[in-house]
Amino acid sequence: NTHGAPWDDVWKWYSPWVEHVRHRSDLNYIVDIISGEIAVGHSYVSGGDYPGLTSDRVGLLGADIIKDRNGFKIEKIYTGESWNPNLSAPLAQVGLNVNVGDYILQVNGEDISTSDNFFSYFEGTAGRQVTLTINSKASKDGARTVLIETIGSENGLRQFDWIEGNRRMVDQLSGGKLAYVYVPNTSNPGYTYFNRYYFAQQDKKGAVIDERNNGGGSAADYMVDIMARELHGYFNSRVEGNKPFPSPGAGIWGPKVMIINERAGSGGDLLPYMFHQMEIGPLVGTRTWGGLVGTWDTPPFIDNGRMVAPRGGFYNTDGEWDVEGKGIAPDIAVEQTPKLVIEGKDPQLEAAVKEAMRLLQTEEVTLKPEPAAPIRWKRPVKKGN
Question: Of 130, 151, 172, which residue constitutes the final position of a domain?
Answer without folding.
Answer: 151
